[in-house]
Design goal:
This protein folds into two domains: 1-43, no CATH class; 50-91, no CATH class. A hairpin with a 5-residue loop joins β2 (21-23) and β3 (29-30). The protein is 59% helix and 9% strand. The longest helix has 17 residues, at 69-85. It has helices at 3-10, 34-43, 45-53, 57-66, 69-85; strands at residues 16-18, 21-23, 29-30. By secondary structure, the chain is mostly helical. α4 (57-66) runs antiparallel to α5.
Length: 91
Amino acid sequence: MKDHEIILALNPQVKVIRGDVAYDADGNEVAYDKAAVQAYVDAHAYIAKRAAEYPNPAEYLDGIVKGDQAQIDKYIADCLAVKAKYPKGAA
């Protein structure tokens, strides 16, 4: 999630962002908590890290189609290892 998306999500009065200045529907500048935006980014960093390291889901599907339980189990174990490496909420 990009910073401007987080600003919009955390501040419903914000309708437009230009650079790092936020505005309401009337064009008035809206102050927002930059620390809260960074805290959100930090708390959700695990999502991108996991996505980059998860194994290809085609391996799982291939194992299902072939009936290869060892391949299925390996895929699941690899996913669980990534989840353990990047737990939710860890910075």
